[in-house]
């Protein structure tokens, strides 16, 4: 079952998927979008709650969860009510887990065999992924029910370098054209495409080019992905142009999130090394070390340095 | 509107032309009295008809019968047979030139117009004139029947057009059922009509003038009816085309079309469009809008006046006669614009409406949109391109300056053909989407390629070469540029050419579903190429190629004007079926070929893919598939048998053949004696038995040989055969046969073979050769018989014969068991085994793709060869210096072991290691140990610390990261050396582009005397090259040259740095190093510095001879300038003294190298050690030390040589 978003929900999805969480969290949904269906309002608010969670605004999230609870009184269909309640509950548990990773209630909730609702299974997947238990996370997802579950499943498979499997996962679970038109699907397929080469890579480039060329969808995250696409396509001058755009974007949006700074720095380092500007790359590397010392990239580099030391030693 | 010329003939003035209703033929009547029959599709002259005297002005094919009619200046009308190519009969009666002749569409009538001022109607079956229409008072230039009604229209130089009612004539002369010329009933009825007395030939009661149309100011040359509307169009010497309308009761002039600047000899209505087409003696063909009577377009011929134009009765074709022949053309293309998306086709029907067609449901939608307003008037929509993301299309129409594009949203559901409301429009001769949010427009007038976003804003503009005529979509962001001589693959984003292929006038491109191959279609040529435009094969088609699509299995299905054909990648082509009408293939799926026809609708054509699948399987050695097809399909025909024989598969061909003779030949070819014998018995011909015997003999199948000899009655051979096989019994039989046949010679032969002496003696005796019989008996110890012979001969004493003591009797054949003795093993092929049901030992694993021989097969063959020639191989190996190769093997093996350790790498990095042959690939994958091992084995690298920075540059340059799910780890991404997924995965290795700038930097530092910095830069270059990957040999060669250059510079600079560090007291060493510095192979501009140092130092320390030498060398490079002047001075002064105060170890005229460590000469013949990376030479004492040039390699280390070529 996939929702075919009404106009107002489409806007919400667009903002959420373009990672404009601050905008999303602070939006006055009810007044701005004038929902004509309480379910849509509920769902939109869920996105708002998730934005709050991503921003670590747990208190705000809790307030919105309570607001959404009130909306449930307007739902008459018993099964739908059950469904929505479960989703809300899952949000509550996930929020608790984020604040306290040892939260036993969350573990009990997400560990259940039967999870009702797409969001519930998604958050269960997220819960286990956070615990680095990717296989359980994959099992918890209900890709047949919800596109976001598919997206997260694909993501996990890509993270595990199981690209072909991810591709099949997407194809198997999304096979109707209306779902293929959604921004969620496009986003997921763009991850896949960005992991690949040839025509797929070109497609992902155009996807991010499209998103980043409209003020409605432009975000630092899209620009970083666009940068990645350019670099993979060996479009180095264009990559430099995107970096300039990123600098301009940051200047125009001083309050924008810094979530993707590590990715940006890693990609910048690659470009500097490609340009043989090794000194500048080293400066960026120091910056990355300062900003995010636990980054997996740095850990990997440290391992490689050790490895190189053994090589030096071996032949000395 | 565009004139597309399909055929042109060259001849004397052509006055009349007619299209055959069904075949691609035209009749052309010439002013020279000849009538030509042309095949305009093939461009060949089929026949010439001679018979008229003087010009022939009118010709016409019969609509159904194989005859045609002609009329000429000899006043006669002739009816000809197309079968016999002869004149059947001549109709006479006209008293002056006959201008036009036409058959009636239904009745067996011919109408003729003549300068004798009459129009006559003839019955060609009774060969009689049945009406003579009088009324015109000048030459009648043209007379034609109405296509459906009983009317005739005529045009005359009396300035009138007349419409005649001939219904009376029909009533009188034809059967009410019609179709007189075609049905037996009609013929019968006509015969009945013959009983009616003929009317007076000048009586007009049967054909009366209905209307007289006056309006032309001069004589009227032509008048014709509209095919469906009550309209007439006429053209006259007043240079005007007039349109007339008729009602039941009257007719009147509607309008005039003015424009021709000379007489209008002919005009007609377009059969399907609202167009009038007129021709003129002003050498133009003009088209007019029937509704507005305004000119649409004119086409001019340089030198030829036009005389007549005819329209094809069923197709969009016209033929126009002119002073030097005839031309066949069509106005505007007939190819419906279309584009594929997934399982559906979007196409534009003949009403300019967009429709979609579902391949799954085999159903076309209702019209989705009307594109009429988007099409340039009188032009079809040329192309459409679909954007699924936006559900919109790009429409292109019109040519050259008139070309336009429109970007139009498509309604989700068919709600009727609503007018399209474009979101963007402009000028372009081609347009297509290149991404979900971008499209390109191209104008061949301005040569501009513009990339546009969905708001129609230009995001990029590129000026292309002026020879680019068209563009074709070739994948996201990529288009093909079609030029008259080549096709170029062009990356729009990068504005760069990716690849090109030389193809003349390619117009269309069709990509295979997997995108690996492309078919480029020219008018008569199809070129198959890879996606990178590497040519695979090219083939010529005599008939024009119209379209192509790849089927699911990668076979190209293409259509010509009248055939559906296929082409395999190996160049095999074949015909699938003949087409009645031209079709444009859209998609091929299994047995179904989806095509668009010229009516703008989808036609589903069932095809039999067996033949091409069979051939493809055979070519690709997919023997399992071949077998399946043989067993489950009806593959028959000479074609496939010939193909199999040609391809070397007679045993497969055997499966299809019934004819015993062919089967026999094939069986012999594939050495199948059983089938050959079976067929030979059926055929029972001496030639067949001979062949069989020969083949059986070569295989050692003696039973078959025996049978063949028996059948051939080759008794001598048979006897010898039994002798050879030791079959005494049969040999005795042969003796008996010889005896019964009275064949003495054969009997003697057999008796010798059998050792039957008595028989031989008897035979000799009977033959009157008593002495020989006696000798035979005597030598074989048969004294009694000998005595008897003597007695019988009446001899008393024995003749004096000396017998050799050692003589022995002829040995009798040794009795052996007659068994086959295989001379040549005729093993059964895969197919033979499979077809005989022996599948147990057959493995299909030997199947290989694309004709490549599978490893198993080639491996086996290799082993066999090796066994056969094992001795030779060993000898050859000894003669080779295998040192390097052996080293390579060792390295490969060790690396193989290491590869096992890298299996845990993520997919992409794992692929890099699998595909890498150079150290850099392993570095990029992070497998530093293997990379180090390779560098050590290949180049003797032992000190890795200086390479640390380079290792990490390579490693990090290809690692990217992109965000996906927030609050979770980002996903890694990797940069490949080529982002095209059809190429093997290999990492991007930075540094190649730095070599040149770094070299220049090194030179600059050299020039500015910063020698140590220069050395560091040259060394950096060495490190880059040592860990580089290049993709062609030229590049590799360049890198090796740079490596040598760096070595020489580091050597030279190190010597100079060393010299500078010497205490001033060490003059000898100073002079030596200065001299050695000149031996470094620097660029001339830099070598002068070394020479100057050496010259100055030598002169300064009174080594004048040396100073003179260095000055001389200096002047060879730099003969003028201030520095040269100084050198000249030094040389002249030094030459005066010409002695050396200090003896140094430097012989300017000897060949030697300088040790890069000790800086001492290594003279030729002296032992030395080499740096494996740069080739720098060292005194042997330096072996094992760190190379001072590279500082990473060990001098004299055994190494296989650096590999940097991918």
Automatic annotation (TrEMBL), chain A:
Cellular compartments annotated: Cytoplasmic vesicle, COPI-coated vesicle membrane; Golgi apparatus membrane
Membrane topology: Peripheral membrane protein
Pfam families per record: Coatomer_E (PF04733)
The keyword Aminoacyl-tRNA synthetase appears for this protein: no
Keywords noted in UniProt: Cytoplasm, Cytoplasmic vesicle, ER-Golgi transport, Golgi apparatus, Membrane, Protein transport, Transport
GO terms for MF: structural molecule activity
Entries under Gene3D superfamilies matching the protein: Tetratricopeptide repeat domain
Domain of life according to the entry: Eukaryota
A Gene Ontology BP annotation from the UniProt entry: intra-Golgi vesicle-mediated transport
Originating organism: Brettanomyces naardenensis
Keyword Cell inner membrane: no
Location, primary (coarse class): membrane
Listed name of the protein: DEKNAAC104353
Protein family membership: Belongs to the COPE family.
GO cellular component, one term: COPI vesicle coat
Automatic annotation (TrEMBL), chain B:
WD repeats, residue ranges: 49-90, 91-132, 133-174, 213-254, 257-298
Alphabetical list of Pfam families matching this protein: B-prop_COPA_B_2nd, COPI_C, TPR_COPA_B, WD40
Keywords, ordered alphabetically: Cytoplasm, ER-Golgi transport, Golgi apparatus, Membrane, Protein transport, Repeat, Transport, WD repeat
Occurrences of domain COPA/B TPR (ranges): 638-786
InterPro entries xref list: Beta-prop_COPA/B_2nd, Coatomer_alpha_WD-assoc_reg, Coatomer_asu, Coatomer_asu_C, Coatomer_complex_subunit, TPR_COPA_B, WD40/YVTN_repeat-like_dom_sf, WD40_PAC1
Subcellular location: Cytoplasm; Golgi apparatus membrane
GO terms, biological process: endoplasmic reticulum to Golgi vesicle-mediated transport; intra-Golgi vesicle-mediated transport; intracellular protein transport; retrograde vesicle-mediated transport, Golgi to endoplasmic reticulum
One Gene Ontology MF term: structural molecule activity
Domain COPA/B second beta-propeller: 351-597
SUPFAM superfamilies the UniProt entry points to: Tricorn protease N-terminal domain, WD40 repeat-like
Signal peptide range: none
Residue span(s) of domain Coatomer alpha subunit C-terminal: 858-1205
GO cellular component: COPI vesicle coat; Golgi membrane
Membrane topology qualifier: Peripheral membrane protein
Function: The coatomer is a cytosolic protein complex that binds to dilysine motifs and reversibly associates with Golgi non-clathrin-coated vesicles, which further mediate biosynthetic protein transport from the ER, via the Golgi up to the trans Golgi network.
Description of how the protein assembles with itself and partners: Oligomeric complex that consists of at least the alpha, beta, beta', gamma, delta, epsilon and zeta subunits.
Protein name, entry field: Coatomer subunit alpha
Organism of this sequence: Brettanomyces naardenensis (Yeast)
